[in-house]
Design goal:
single chain, 93 residues, mainly alpha
């Protein structure tokens, strides 16, 4: 076997394991939500980056550009959250 075939097999295997991990997290999250162990608000907050990526991909039609736009949007949301939290702590809202 050539080394490129081994690399391809390793990459496919790694992607498969990542996919299985993601599927198991989704199933576990749905199970926890159904059992009342998780708050819907937390799950919605965790879904925000995926929603932003989906919208960006739908508008731009390019995965790398959608990823960059998602990263920029999430950084903007983070900065906004830090500012609001700081103001709330400073002025005791």
């Amino acid at each position: 076997m050539e080394s490129s075939v081994i690399v391809q097999i390793a990459v496919i295997g790694a992607m498969g394991l990542i996919g299985l991990g993601i599927v198991s997290m989704i199933v576990s999250g749905i199970k926890s939500l159904a059992q009342g162990k998780q708050d819907v608000k937390r799950i919605v907050i965790m879904a925000v980056p995926f929603a932003i990526f989906g919208i960006a991909y739908g508008v731009l039609g390019d995965i790398p550009k959608a990823g960059v736009l998602t990263t920029i949007a999430m950084m903007g949301i983070m900065v906004f959250s830090v500012v609001i939290t700081g103001l709330r702590g400073t002025f005791k809202f």
